[in-house]
Every structure is written in C-alpha cells, then in structure tokens.
Amino acid sequence: MSVTIVVPPSQPATLPEPPGDAAQCDTLAETLYTTAARYEEFGEEATQLRNLTGYWWGVAYDAYVVASGNAATEHTAMAATVRRVGRAVTSYADTLRDLTATHGTLVERKGGLDERRTTLIADIDATTEATPGVVAALQERATDLRTGYATLVTDHDTLQRRVRENEDLLRQAFQAADTLAEGLSAAGGVPETARSAMDKPGAPGTGATPAQVRDWWEHLTDAEREAVIAAYPGLIGSADGLPADTRDQANRVLLDDDLARLGAKEADGTLSADERKVLDNARATQKAVEKADGFVDPTTGEKPGGTLWLYDPAAFDGDGRVAVGVGDLDTADDVSVQVPGIRSEMDDVGGYTDEAIRLYESARYNGDGSSVATLFWLGYNTPEGAIDLDTITTGRAEDGGQRLADAVEGLRASRSDDPAHLTVIGHSYGSTTTSYAATDHDLAADDVVLIGSPGAGPADTAADFSVGADHVYDGRNSRDAVAFFGDEGAYHNPGGLGVDPSSEDFGAHRFEAESVDRGAIRNFDDHSRYYDHESESLYNLGKIVDGHGDEVNGAAQSHDPWWRWAVDPEADRDPTTNVPGRSDTRADDVP
Question: 263, 247, 166, 261: which is closest to 214 by C-alpha?
Fold first, then answer.
C-alpha cells in the first residue's frame, strides 16, 4: 500500500525588505527642523522690527507695519507646518526601523521552516518501512509545516500592509502642506487619517478620562495610531491612559524636534533665554534616555530598555516636566514611581535616571524573578531651594499630589487588564507630595514609601493613606537633617510639613536606611544617600518594589520623650554595606 505525504511548498516565495533608509529619513527630518528654525527666526525678527516709530511716518509707514505684521504671522505659521512635516518624517523613520526589524524576524522564521522542510523531504525519501506510526509522524510534521508557512504568509501580508500604510501617511503629510494656503493653515502637514482619528470619542485633549483614552486607543487601526503619534506628539506623549511605549514614541518625536530646531537657532545666535532653557532640558533628557536605553540588566545580560514617559521642557517657566523609565512599563510585574523633592528640575534628569537604574538593579538582584520597571517622575513644580517659602509650605505638595495621583491613574488605566504591583516612593519634599496623593486623592498604588521625609503632609497616621497602614513604609537616615523637620510630639518641631513618618505616632513600617558614610551629626549630605549602591536603604527599597515588603529589615521607630528632642534608636547602630540580606544590591562584578 502506497501512502502520499504532501509536503507544503516554501512560501511566501520572496520576502522583500521594506524600502527606504531610516537614517536618510532622519537627515531629512533634521533638515526640516532646521528650516522651521529659519522661518521662526524671520518671524521673530519681523515682529521686533515692526515698530519703527521715529524713522518715518505716514501712508508708507502704515503699509510697512501691515506688511511686517503679515510677514511675521505667515512665517510663524509656516514654521509650525514645516515642524509637523518634520515630525511626520521622524515618525516614518521610527516605524520603518520597526518594520525592518520585523522583516528580519520573518526572514529568520522562513529560514527555519525551509530547513525543517528540507529535513522532512529527506526523511520521507529515506523511509523504507511505512508503518502507520511512521506515516502518522511524518504527516504531523507536514501539517505543522503547512501551518507555519500559512502563519508566515499572514504575517508577511500584515507587514506589507503596514509598509504601505507608513508610506501613505508620509504622503498625506507632504500633500497636506504642498500649497501656500495649506502651509499657512493651522492643519498644515497634518494627514487626514490623524485628524479623523482625533475626532473620535475618547481622544486626548477632549477631557476624556484615562480609561476612555485607553479605549479610544484600542479601537484605532495601526495606521491611525502612527498618524496621531506623528501629528499630535504633544497630546499623545502626555496622555494618561495610553501605553507607555506609545507615549515614549511620541515624546521622542518631540525631543528630536527640539534638539534639531533649537540647536540650529543656537548656531545662528538667535536662541532666546526661554529657548535656552528648553534646549538645555532637551539635551539633558537625551543623555538620560540614552543611559536608560543602554542599561544592561546584570541578572540577564539583556537591555530592558528606556522609556520617555513624559517630556514637557517648557513647563513651569522652564523648570520642565519629565519622566524616564527603565524596563517595560507596559508588561512588568512590578512597577515603581520615584517622586523627587526640592531643587529638582528637568536638567537633573540624568542623576535621577541613575537612581531609577539602581533601584531596578536592587529589585532584580534580590527579587523573586519577577519582571521590574522603575520610573523617575518629575511631573510637578518642586520648590526652588532649602531657603524658600514654598519649601516650608505645602502648596506645591498639594498640587503635586493631584498630579501624581493622575499620573498613577494613567499608568493603571493603560494596563487595566494586566495590573502590576505598583510602588510609589517619595523622597524629601516628594514624600510630602506623595502623602497628599495617598491621603487626598486616593493614590492607586499597592505600596507607598517615604524616604528622607520632612513630614507626611495631611496624614496624621499611616492609616490615613489610601493603601492602608500595612502598606506604608518609611526610611530615615538618623543623620538626615531634612528628615529631622517632621513634627513629632506636641511641642517638638511644630513648623514641619506634617508628622514625622518614622515616629511611633505615625505607625509606618520603618526600615533600615543608615549609610556607612553618614556624618557624625545631622547634615544634608545624608539626605541624598537613600539610593546609594550597596546601602541598607536601596536593599529595602528593592524588596518593597519586588512585592516583598514583609521581608524588609525593620528599624525601631523614633519616639518623643516629651522633655527633649525626639530620640532615634538608629543613631547608635552601626550601618552595614554590601552585606547579603541586608545591604547587598548587585553582583560584585557589576561596575
């Protein structure tokens, strides 16, 4: 009896690489951003030269005023259009890179299937005894191969469709700016696909809730998503409820725009003082993102990747708003949000990204194997310095608490079907800000940590926090001068920013946070040592982020003897460093 085993043909016949050179597209985008800078410069100069009273007067002067005003308005409008086209090119290049990477994966898959096909044919030809078992096994291999090729064909068709859509979006952007009237319009360079997507219910900027924004995003096509990222990166990059990867793509478009356009104005000597702040913030952010992108997880040897979750370099009179993440915020089992305190501005983002990396290392090194993502968040206007009315009052903490709660709600909404264990860590004035979020705004965290706190704001006890007292932790270095400002007892330090969260009265879980480099007396240097490598504080923070707050090394709470300053039992304990289970936060061979 003869048996026929049908071996499927290798398909698709060819796998053409997506056309285009992303690097060349980047060069074109930079040229467009530079051109936009030239338009901006002309518009600014025309505005400055509009008022020439005293040079001449009469009908000619009146005509000059009108003409210079029109020139300023038109060049400013053209600058905006050219920037939008430049962003479309940047987005096209970014998508092209993704599509090219996908193509490479498909080529590898086809190579594997073809190898299996060749082996199957050889095995069939070599079969001398076609027993039922042998035939069944060969037929099963042929069926699996057929399924593999069919899936590959489907995925290749999807890739080709996305290639066509990417090209069509760029075509739409060019065609939306190919006449003078379009170039001067408010929608110049914006593809129709993007405009129609933003008209749908739940779009960012319409007052929609984070959950509604997420629902809007989930119902967009791939082409619509790519279109709105390119056309409206400012809205998409700061929209609570959208996936972190989406926000990252949009914010990197904005970053590329600022770096190239403002860099060109700097070279021309036309950069204003406000633009100087924005450019400095952009450059600091670029370095921080590169640092996050290049970080290698010491436990796996892989790069978890960086995320530019928030980018607003002109906010708060140039102090800026920014958030940089390490790890995959969209999928990580454990996510943390680090909130800084006084004197934190956007150009400090590099140092804070280092702290996010250290926290990631600690959580992974001493963790249970779960995936981790850490996020440094500077989304509120911090006080300017230690000697500042805003530092000894709670106004900015109250405002920041609302902003923080909104940001965490956005993180939650972006992955409501796959919730992470989420920890919020407030340092210094950021701990007071975090307290307002957890007390007045129902902060959607699982655990809250206050470190170096000058006071817990409106909370009288840890039980006032939305997470419940069992999930409130405190770390205080006994030499930290800032942490000494918290209220403790009826007659001690009544001018602080709330109750000292390390005290018995507050009732949080205090953990060891002493530094071997601590000073002999209270000082401000120890206020900045909570994220130091191989420190007690970083070890315990990593445990909490990993979801094992019950395993922190506890510290005795401070208490008020009523007749003198509060007593801190940790002051006389010898600190540890690089001790397994106590202050060991990374492998010895990690630099």
Answer: 247
274: amino acid identity, one letter: D
Whether 124 and 5 have beta carbons less than 8 Å apart is answered as: yes
* C-alpha to C-alpha distance for 313 and 284, rounded to whole angstroms: 10
Q: Is-contact 488 564, C-beta < 8 A? A: no
**Under 8 Å between Cβ of 479 and 434:** no
Here the tokens at position 98 are: 């993704």
- Cβ-in-10-Å burial (0-12, 13-18, 19+) of 127 comes to middle
| Sole residue written with tokens 């994220």 | 531
Structure tokens at 210: 């984070």
Do strands 334-339 and 372-378 pair parallel, antiparallel, or not at all (unpaired)? parallel
| Two structure tokens written together for 32 | 């467009």
Rounded Cα distance between 68 and 46, Å, is 6
Low-confidence stretches of the chain (pLDDT beneath 70): 1-2, 52-56, 385-393, 489-496, 563, 589-591
Q: What is the pLDDT of residue 65?
A: 80
3-class DSSP state of 474? strand
| Residue from 416, 425, 493 nearest 454 by CA | 493
Burial group, residue 144, by CB count within 10 angstroms (0-12, 13-18, 19+): middle
pLDDT for 47: 83
Judge contact between 424 and 434, C-beta under 8 A: yes
Q: In what order do the strands lie in the sheet with 421-427?
A: 306-312, 321-326, 372-378, 334-339, 421-427, 447-451, 472-475, 509-511
pLDDT at position 496, please?
A: 67
- String of DSSP letters for 520-568: SS-BSGGGG-TT-TT-HHHHHHHHHHTT-GGGS-B-PPBB--SSSSPB-
Tokens coding 250: 């949009």
Kindly give the pairing relationship between strand 447-451 and strand 421-427: parallel
Query: For residues 336 and 425, what is the distance between their CA atoms, to the nearest angstrom?
Result: 7
- Nearest CA-CA partner of 322 in 338, 308, 336: 308
Give residue 432's pLDDT: 95
- Give the C-alpha separation, 213 to 232, whole Å: 14
Distance CA(325)–CA(206), nearest Å, equals: 27
Q: Strand 372-378 and strand 421-427: pairing?
A: unpaired
Paired tokens of 133: 């078992």
Q: Residue 477: how many CB atoms within 10 A of its CB?
A: 32
According to the model, what pLDDT value does residue 235 have?
97
Which tokens go with 463? 């039980």
All residues at 6 or more sequence positions from 470 whose CB lies less than 8 Å from its CB, including other chains: 509
Distance between CA 457 and CA 477 in Å, rounded?
19
Strand partners for 306: 326
Omega of the bond prior to 12 within 30 degrees of 0, cis? yes
User: What is each CA distance from 50 to 44, 65, 85, in whole angstroms?
Assistant: 10, 6, 29
pTM of the model: 0.91
Pairing label, strands 509-511, 472-475: parallel
Q: What span, in angstroms and rounded, lies between the C-alpha atoms of 231 and 225?
A: 10
Q: Exposed/middle/buried for 97, CB within 10 Å: 0-12, 13-18, 19+? A: middle
| 8-state DSSP, 325 | E
